[in-house]
Amino acid sequence: MTGNKKLLIKGMDNAPMAPKDKPRFQYTLLPFLFAGFSITSCSVTLLADKVSASHISPLSFMMPGVNPEQSDKDSEPFVEIDPTGRYGRYTELLGSGAVKRVYRAFDQEEGIEVAWNQVKLRNLSNDPSMIDRLFSEVRLLRSLTNKNIISLHNVWRDQEHNTLNFITEVCTSGNLRDYRKKHRQVSMKALKKWSKQILTGLDYLHTHEPCIIHRDLNCSNVFVNGNTGQVKIGDLGLAATVGKSHSAHSVLGTPEFMAPELYDEDYTELVDIYSFGMCVLEMVTLEIPYSECDNVAKIYKKVSSGVRPQALSKVRDPDVKAFIERCLAQPRARPSAAELLQDSFFDEVDDDDDENIDSGISP
């Protein structure tokens, strides 16, 4: 079909009528659901400068993916709705951890899928002050706006079920650990791009007022939009907010990624840099740090003694190894996120490449 074309749906408010000097072809669409409204039928007029009836088929106007025999029974019901009535939760589980479950959900206002995060408060503590602190910290995260931080849309406490719930955006390709395992042939340049985005997110958190320490950064808490290569830090529900001293005093995190000083319950935001170094190590080697240890006690013993994970010996590139070592240094010698972003490690990564990444990943 050639010439200029324009589709008009007649019978709808403010729809312009076809000029009399243009040929018109009309077809009636079968019943379908559109944006939540049932349309029984409508007439579609095609205007064309040069077109013949032989070029037109009624099938050309069928909505893609629409089955005329579909009914309401095919729609998936919500099993839970947030207090505002905007977000609905489905039964599908996207992921789970020791204290949290993440479900697929839907934002009815924006028409997009989101993640419904649910923390069972009884799994954390029977201390009301601890629960209140967690709630206030998660609520603070709602104000964060950064392209490398998962967006938090809403948060509330369900008194009846004793849960803390918060709605976040969904990344299309899941977490970085699973994504890296799926795509094993990845260039070092692509890994550096991912690493730079993680550091950018950490720099935003650490320079926020008050400072925010993630405390549980690992590859399963970093998420990927595989179609763009964009990386976002998530699972901020256990993050700590600290004042000007930037010192925190509670132990939370994943043992393999926890800095030695975190075990001592006196630490700063630099514990996230240590965890970031372990993330880079996992990305490079496809091995979780300290996987040679079969229990937490052995991990703690090695970490507290300054023994590096065996995976570090598998890093062949001396520049990559040196960069990881900088991240794992003692707190006084450990650089900040801003300082690491200036490291020569990222020289081949352009600033404009952060969001639109062609990583050369093999299918």
Automatic annotation (TrEMBL):
Acidic residues bias spans: 345-357
EC nos: 2.7.11.1
Segments forming domain Protein kinase: 88-346
Name of the protein: non-specific serine/threonine protein kinase
Entry GO terms, CC: cytoplasm
Spans annotated as Disordered: 344-363
Keyword entries, A-Z: ATP-binding, Kinase, Nucleotide-binding, Serine/threonine-protein kinase, Transferase
Enzyme superclass (EC): transferase
Example GO biological process: intracellular signal transduction
UniProt-recorded Gene Ontology molecular function terms: ATP binding; protein serine/threonine kinase activity
Domain of life: Eukaryota
A Pfam family per the record: Pkinase
PANTHER family in the cross-refs: SERINE/THREONINE-PROTEIN KINASE WNK WITH NO LYSINE -RELATED
UniProt key word Nucleotide-binding: yes
Reaction(s) catalysed by this chain's protein: L-seryl-[protein] + ATP = O-phospho-L-seryl-[protein] + ADP + H(+); L-threonyl-[protein] + ATP = O-phospho-L-threonyl-[protein] + ADP + H(+)
Keyword Transferase: yes
Source organism: Theobroma cacao
InterPro entries for this protein: Kinase-like_dom_sf (IPR011009), Prot_kinase_dom (IPR000719), WNK_Ser-Thr_kinase (IPR050588)
